[in-house]
Amino acid sequence: MLCSLIHCLYQDFLGVVDEEAAAAVGNQAVHYDPDPVVPAAPLSQPPQQQPAQPEPSPLRVPPPNAPLKFHLLTHDEHRGYLIAIGADQIDLLNRIVTGTGLHSADASTICKFITVDAKSRRPTNLTRKSFKSAMQRIFAHTFKTLSTAVPSSTQMELSEFTDRIFISFDREKQQKVNAIELACGFTVLCSGRKSDKLEHLFEMLDQDNDSLVSRGDITKFLQSFLTVLTCVSSSLSYLDGTPCGNDSKAASKAAMAGAEWAASQVFHTLKPRRDKICFDDFADWYTKGGYQNIPWLELLDLKKWCSHR
Total structural domains in the chain? Predict the structure, then answer.
């Protein structure tokens, strides 16, 4: 897995990170991916950050059998979290996405399977029953791409995993989840580069078709992404090492706080006049230094950390 991961981290991006930015991220860090949708640009000045915040740490290539760790900064007194995704969890996720064909599924198609039952509702919620129907549509579609039948062991792991996803997104414990948020989070598990997924998510969140999204929309997407990551995490602690619990409530709190902090960095730097931004605004912010603030966004590209092993 490491060979594949290292190959993806150092060979799979099309732009060139300038020496200053590369040094800032670190020789062993996961590089940001300035692909054609998110054009590379020299880092002319450091990103603006809110006062009294620690420097975000870059993602590190883990040694064999070691967890993938990243910092999730927040506005809280403890200033953020340390999240670890263990090698066993990465193996499990890899078995699920490859064994079911999900890793080769187009993100926009999967999102449609999730939101089709919610289009006539406001707010767009899925009950547990409609959630299961969405999962059946998704995997009926992905199973068709496989050359062999899905083993019963993989189907059992898949069932347990999707149950965990539902619980993680059911933040109010009302036996329902927001379809748009679930679709945003589920894109992590699909094929596609980070920038392609981001562009699709901007289009999905643009409810009034003005090509702009609000700070709340950005927070919603980032929270959904982090919800999936914390769902597969092995441990969660405060930055000072103090345990904070690893249940769904603690994970939900961390995902929300991290998303709010990240969205604040975007809007604090860009200062949009209408308090809305377009995809190109976000792309420009990210490639000009935002990747140093939220390096965990690189995990949106599944092959960078959960490729074939």
Answer: 1
Domain housing 284: 2-304
- Mean pLDDT score across all residues of the chain: 81
d(CA 215, CA 156): 38
Residue 264 falls within a domain, yes or no?
yes
What is the pLDDT confidence band of residue 63, given thresholds at 50, 70 and 90? low
Q: How many residues does the chain have?
A: 309
- List alpha helices for the chain, DSSP H: 2-11, 19-25, 87-99, 107-115, 128-143, 152-169, 179-186, 194-205, 215-231, 248-270, 279-285, 291-293
One-letter amino acid for residue 262 of the chain: A
d(CA 260, CA 244): 19
Tokens linked to 97? 């996405």
For residue 177, the cross-strand partners are 126
For residue 309, tell me if it sits in a domain: no
Q: Is 79 within a domain?
A: yes
* Cβ 238 vs Cβ 244: under 8 Å: yes
> Mind listing the pLDDT tens digit for each residue in 65-110?
778 999 999 999 999 999 999 999 999 999 999 999 999 999 999 9
Question: Tell me, what's the pLDDT at 48?
Answer: 45
**56-to-78, 174, 276, 293 alpha-carbon distances in Å:** 14, 35, 25, 6
Cα gap 130→113, rounded to integer Å: 11
